[in-house]
Design brief:
- Helix 2 (32-40) runs antiparallel to helix 3.
- This protein is of the alpha/beta class and 193 residues long.
- It has two domains: 2-12 and 65-192, 3-Layer(aba) Sandwich (Rossmann fold), CATH 3.40.50.1000; 14-63, no CATH class.
- The protein has helices at residues 14-23, 32-40, 45-57, 70-79, 103-114, 129-138, 149-152, 183-192; strands at 2-4, 11-12, 65-66, 84-89, 123-126, 143-146, 162-166, 177-180.
- The strands form two sheets. It has a six-stranded parallel β-sheet. A two-stranded antiparallel ribbon has the order 2-3.
- The protein binds magnesium ion.
């Protein structure tokens, strides 16, 4: 079993973040990290940032793309009969948008539109990071791919799962993590090694 994170691992929200940056008139700022860093410097910026994320991961998913190379990776897993699971820390509602958009429903609808071969029952949205890590352990994932190094470095991370950090910035990973700049590198790492 190979486990995949969802937001910013399988789903590329770049367009939705760009649209939000333009809406807030943030000048040259356009990526997720730039927006976060820019807003956090302002008084009350953390709340603005959380509300922005509620919009991006809710209605913004309509503009989101599949991360480049992810479809080819999934197709190759299916061809090799390697089971896949999506395991994501995703609450039903954003803390800054209670009772608003059902984030899990929006995510499942997006997955449905992508028409990839991951069965509904292999998609897990968990309430907490701890529950996500437990799920990775219970499914006995051989590999897990995530864009957040703090998830992969968590004390509770199952020790027998190999940790693959998807990081476009190509930061140097801290053991026992291995890093990959994109899905093509992840495919090489898993299928060629
Ligand atoms: Mg993520």
């Amino acid at each position: 079993m190979i486990g995949l994170d969802f937001d910013n691992t399988l789903v590329d929200y770049a367009e939705a973040f760009r649209a939000e940056a333009a809406r807030l008139d943030l000048g040259r700022v356009s990526t997720k990290t730039e927006i976060r860093d820019c807003l956090r410097l302002r008084a009350g910026g953390e709340i603005v940032w959380q509300k922005l994320q509620a919009r991006v991961y809710g209605p913004g998913i309509a503009q989101a793309q599949m991360m480049q190379g992810a479809r080819a990776f999934i197709d190759e897993c299916i061809r090799r009969k390697i089971p896949l699971a999506i395991i994501s820390h995703k609450t039903r509602y954003a803390a800054q948008d209670p009772g608003g958009v059902d984030l899990r429903q929006a995510a499942r609808e997006w997955l449905g539109r992508q028409n990839i071969g991951i069965a509904h029952e292999n998609v897990f949205f968990e309430e907490t990071r701890e529950a996500k890590l437990n799920r990775i352990g219970r499914l006995d994932c051989r590999y897990f791919v995530d864009d957040l190094s703090e998830v992969l470095l968590d004390q509770q991370f199952p020790p027998t799962t190999q940790r693959l950090w998807l990081t476009a910035a190509m930061e140097t990973p801290q053991p026992p993590i291995d890093a990959a700049g994109d899905w093509f590198q992840i495919a090489r790492y898993i299928f060629v090694s």
